[in-house]
Amino acid sequence: MTKPNLLLELYSNLSTTGALTFSSKALVKKMVSQADLKGAKLIVEMGGGDGSITQGIVDEMDSSAELLVFEINTSFCEAMEKQFPQENVHIINASADELNAYLKGRKADFIFSSLPFSLIPKDVVDSILKQANAALVEGGAFIQICYSYLLKNLFQKYFKKVSISFTLKNLPPAFVMACKD
């Protein structure tokens, strides 16, 4: 799927994507820099979209690491499956709320998310964040892109420590919240 077609898909599904455009390279770099992916065994991404964050993760992770990418939009999944044919990258056409079913008891070193939590029903948000917290290894982190600083309050309900960085080099400018226990 071409970039213009992906953009059309993005705009056609604003209620589930929650984004005006895809993540900038500066935002992806800021997000991925919140994690030391060297030595990570299992990494999760929630909301793969056009694969821009996925590409940033793949560029930094070890070739022996496994990446699970959750995306509910079938068109985005089909495009990412072509973009990431590697055996250690798994594109999952399912809600992040199904995390436990796919981890099967395993723990993730890092979970990256661009989910639009402001647009997701509260019970589903609660389920996703509880599963994410429980799914992390000790010392792991849940790393989230946000367009509102106020979402820090949400993440503090599930994680003991939330550190925040900001980039203007994205449309709109964005916060990256790294959440740890």
From TrEMBL:
Can the keyword Transcription be found in this entry's annotation? no
Entry annotated with the keyword Lyase: no
Query: Superkingdom of the source?
Result: Bacteria
- Please state every residue range assigned to the domain named Methyltransferase small: 22-162
Recorded hits in InterPro entries, A to Z, give:
SAM-dependent_MTases_sf, Small_mtfrase_dom
Tell me, what's a Pfam family for it? MTS
User: What keywords were assigned to this record?
Assistant: Methyltransferase, S-adenosyl-L-methionine, Transferase
Q: Name one GO biological process term.
A: methylation
In alphabetical order, the GO MF annotations are: methyltransferase activity; RNA binding
The name of this protein is Methyltransferase domain-containing protein
- Please name the source species: Algoriphagus kandeliae
What is this organism's lineage? Answer: Bacteria, Pseudomonadati, Bacteroidota, Cytophagia, Cytophagales
